[in-house]
Every structure is written in C-alpha cells, then in structure tokens.
Amino acid sequence: MRIWTTESQPQHLQFSYWREVLCEAFVSLDPVRQRMGPGFTGEVCSSPLGRTMQTRVASGAQFLNRRTEEIRRNPVEFIFVNFQLEGSCVVRQDGRESLVQSGDFSIVDTTRPYFLDFRDDWRVLSFRVPITQFLAKLAAPRDATARCLSGAHGAGLVATRFAHSLQDLDDDLSEISQESLGAALNCVVTATLGSMPETREQDRSSLRLATRSAVEGYIADHLADPSLSPHTIAARFRMSRRSLYSLFEASPLSVSGMIRTLRLERSAQDLLRPNRPSILDVALRWGFNDLSHYSRIFRRRFGASPREFIAASRKPGS
C-alpha cells in the first residue's frame, strides 16, 4: 500500500504537492481549491487489486478538472468507479451532471473530459478499472458516466457493500485472488447500471440526453455573450422555456444556475492568469455588469472576494 499525505509538506507547499499526488495516484488532473487559506489537507492510500487499483482519498473543498489539455498530456484509458463515503460531489461528463451524496457512487471515463466539484470535506473510495474490462460488459458505455448510482438498494447496495469489504483485504492476497475480486466488482457495478430505468429505456431517453448535451455545449461556447439566457437558448433550439427547464429538472443546477456557475469558474480562471485584465474587465467579459453583485456571488462560490482570491493565489504553494 502507498500512502501520500499533505501533512508531510510545509503549509506553503501543500497544495502544489496535492496536485502531484493526484496525478501520480489517479490521472492527470487540474485541481482548483475552493477556499483560500494557509495549507491544504489531503490524503491518499492506494493498493492494487489485480489490474484494478483501489484508492481511498480524503480532502477538502475543490474542483477537479480533466480537460482536453490533461487528456492530451496523459492519454490513459481507465474507468473510475467512485464510492462517496463522506460529503458530496457534483460530477459532470458526456452532457450529464449529477449530485452524488454519501452512500452513492458514480463513474467517469478518463478518455473524455470530466469535472468533479467537491464543495465540503469529503472521502471517496475509488477503483481504477482498465477501460477494456469495463466496456465489454456495457452496450452503451457513454450512458454510464456521470450518473448518481444509489447504494441504498438492489444491485447498487450489493456493489457498495462489496466495494467497502475490499478495504479489509490482506496485503499478501495472491494476484489471482486480487484479479478475481476486481473482476467481481466490475460485474456488480455493471449489473447496477443494467438495472437502472435509464438504461432499460435507453431508446426513449437518448434524444433527451443528446438535446441536453447540445444545450450544455451551446452554453459553454456562448458564456461571454451578455444576451445568453434561458429565453435565447430556448429560441436557438426551437423549444419552449418549459421544455428547456425540463431537460435540467434532475440536475442540481437550473439553466440559469449553470450559466452563472460556469461564468464564475471561467472568471476565476481569468483572475489567475499572469497577464490578467482588471477585475472589472473580467466581470464584464463573463456577463457580470454589476461589480458589487459579481463580488458577492464570487465570494459565495469561492469563499473569498475576487481581490482576495488573486492575493491568495500569489502565495507560494497556492
């Protein structure tokens, strides 16, 4: 078993060390801390389970991005099955977004961009599975990602209990036994996916998912357009606003909430650039015409004003 902890580092180096740990224990990721302050807490414990890797991770509020840039730099092919032990996570991939709470689990595919939003302290039990092992058992692999899979009943309960039991394995377990247990976990996870109504009714839901994915892509591409709104989006896709809202009714974020959140994320990225424009220019670029309103919602989202956010990023290790 390998263990990494930020406590082994001086406070001013802890977050930069955390970035290195994530890339070594998982895949290339871009973490963004949500709260500024001295130091950063994070711990990872990892052990093999045949070709599957079992990892326990605990940390604080942060975004984890795997963008096209990270995929290009680290083009590995894995599925991560993430069991939420404590806290919650908003997971986004393939045009879907789900809120995963303690006791539930979700899946992401490292070959395509994904985004994880941990807003409080959290613990996750994660299994890294070679993509070839996983995809062979699913008829529609892209329909598996970024879904909240309940661990409270049915096949999801079996998968969750089995995954938790794997934490108690002896270190000297034979490779054959490890491989068999990894394959068994794969089977119960795919059984959970197969039992979902969304999977059984794939034909009926595919158009709805494709439409929502197109809407989300349009939103992401037009965030800098000050006229972007539910009204203009509905007009662009020739649907009523009621139909547009229904596409997002199962999402933690409404259409307006998604626009606002993505604009805040983009503005935060701009504020961290070496040659950034003024805070006012950044706010205006991303559709925030009232600087005081922008500062209030920025603080609500990131726990610091834009000016404090910039100052904290200049400290060593931030």
Give an account of the 3D structure:
This protein is α+β, with helices and mostly antiparallel strands. It folds into two domains: 2-200, Jelly Rolls (Sandwich); 202-313, Homeodomain-like (Arc Repressor Mutant, subunit A), CATH 1.10.10. It is built from 13 helices and eleven strands. The protein has helices at residues 14-25, 68-73, 131-135, 154-165, 175-194, 197-200, 202-221, 230-236, 241-247, 255-271, 279-285, 291-302, 306-313; strands spanning 2-5, 30-33, 42-49, 52-59, 62-66, 78-86, 88-93, 96-101, 105-109, 114-118, 122-130. It has a six-stranded antiparallel beta sheet with strand order 1-3-4-11-6-9, sandwiched between helices. A hairpin with a 2-residue loop joins β3 (42-49) and β4. The radius of gyration is 20 Å and the shape is globular.
Produce the secondary structure layout:
Elements: E1 2-5, H1 14-25, E2 30-33, E3 42-49, E4 52-59, E5 62-66, H2 68-73, E6 78-86, E7 88-93, E8 96-101, E9 105-109, E10 114-118, E11 122-130, H3 131-135, H4 154-165, H5 175-194, H6 197-200, H7 202-221, H8 230-236, H9 241-247, H10 255-271, H11 279-285, H12 291-302, H13 306-313
Antiparallel strand pairs: 1-3, 2-5, 3-4, 4-11, 5-10, 6-9, 6-11, 7-8, 7-10
Helix pairs in contact: 4-5, 8-9
Strand content: 15-25%
The CATH architecture category of the largest domain equals Sandwich
| Model regions low in confidence, pLDDT < 50 over at least 5 residues | 199-204
- Ends: how far apart? 28 Å
Let me know the CATH homologous superfamily of the largest domain: Jelly Rolls
What is the CATH class name of the largest domain?
Mainly Beta
